């Protein structure tokens, strides 16, 4: 790309949910605190690669030039091999994908297949750049600081270049999204006031739609899974099965049918009681078959989110 260096551009129209790319890592390395030890470990692994793979690794960007070039390339480009993983992998093509705070694709490590996948989370037109997100969320100043420190660039994506008033509104939404995410994840609140936790999920979905215009597929899927967990903890199999169904739909879009996480949530959709937290409470106990039928969409959503209980 003219101002970003290398990047990936769609050669044809790409449908939402399509697997764009999957790659085995060129090299996997733990994230070690000692740069000298990490450098030696990567150097040893590089010697085992073919000349072609070595050249591909060395051609990747390095935002940390200096005494430890191999470690710098790894720190700049590595994707974690799974959520919370302490090891990361680098890829010849996936590592070329640039960042956007409003991405049109999502990266995911498929633990069963041992490769990284890229799925479109929006319709991508031929000639359009494919982007993923490098940031950890939050308002623009927080994102800019993280991207500058970790990757050495100032983000100039469409979202960061919004007019001041629109950027202000975007920042407020992203701050609210972070606050709600923290609230939803509080175990004490989930047990003591599950209605509040479920309400937070509902509000989060509205904010995600307003902020990401339908592109927050990964986050939406996670919120539906959070709602599933809140319900199943309190024995509500009926609502839990619906939330698991919705979480599965979004997980398929951003990870594919063969993702272990997709397969797990799909099994919970069929048998919610398989979840380890089932039975922790009987506050909302219902059978899976007690999903109401014949309701119009609004009334069904009111039932699903327990809105009728607050009227």
Automatic annotation (TrEMBL):
<dbReference type="Pfam" id="PF00856">
    <property type="entry name" value="SET"/>
</dbReference>
<dbReference type="InterPro" id="IPR011990">
    <property type="entry name" value="TPR-like_helical_dom_sf"/>
</dbReference>
<dbReference type="InterPro" id="IPR046341">
    <property type="entry name" value="SET_dom_sf"/>
</dbReference>
<dbReference type="InterPro" id="IPR001214">
    <property type="entry name" value="SET_dom"/>
</dbReference>
<protein>
    <submittedName>
        <fullName>SET</fullName>
    </submittedName>
</protein>
<dbReference type="InterPro" id="IPR053185">
    <property type="entry name" value="SET_domain_protein"/>
</dbReference>
<feature type="domain" description="SET">
    <location>
        <begin position="1"/>
        <end position="135"/>
    </location>
</feature>
């Amino acid at each position: 790309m003219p101002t970003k260096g290398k990047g990936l551009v769609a050669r044809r129209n790409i449908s939402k949910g399509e697997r764009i790319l999957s790659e085995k890592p060129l090299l996997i390395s733990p994230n070690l605190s000692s740069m000298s030890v990490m450098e030696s470990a990567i150097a040893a692994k590089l010697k085992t690669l073919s000349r072609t793979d070595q050249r591909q690794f060395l051609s990747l960007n390095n935002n940390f030039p200096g005494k430890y070039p191999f470690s710098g390339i790894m720190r700049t480009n590595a994707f974690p091999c799974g959520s919370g993983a302490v090891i990361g992998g680098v890829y010849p093509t996936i590592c070329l994908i640039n960042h956007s705070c409003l991405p049109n694709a999502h990266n995911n490590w498929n633990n069963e297949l041992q490769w990284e996948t890229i799925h479109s989370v929006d319709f991508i037109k031929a000639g359009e750049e494919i982007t993923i997100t490098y940031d950890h969320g939050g308002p623009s100043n927080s994102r800019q600081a993280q991207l500058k420190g970790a990757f050495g660039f100032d983000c100039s994506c469409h979202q960061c270049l919004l007019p001041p008033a629109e950027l202000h509104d975007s920042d407020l939404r992203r701050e609210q999204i972070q606050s709600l995410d923290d609230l939803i994840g509080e175990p004490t609140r989930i047990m003591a006031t599950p209605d509040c936790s479920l309400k937070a999920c509902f509000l989060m979905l509205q904010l995600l739609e307003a902020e990401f215009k339908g592109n927050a597929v990964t986050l939406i899927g996670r919120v539906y899974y959070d709602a599933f967990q809140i319900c199943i903890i309190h024995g509500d199999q009926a609502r839990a099965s619906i939330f698991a169904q919705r979480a599965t739909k979004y997980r398929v879009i951003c990870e594919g049918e063969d993702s272990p996480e997709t397969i797990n949530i799909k099994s919970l959709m069929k048998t919610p009681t398989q979840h380890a937290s089932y039975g922790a409470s009987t506050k909302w106990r219902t059978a899976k078959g007690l999903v109401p039928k014949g309701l119009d969409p609004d009334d069904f959503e009111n039932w699903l989110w327990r809105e009728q209980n607050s009227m």
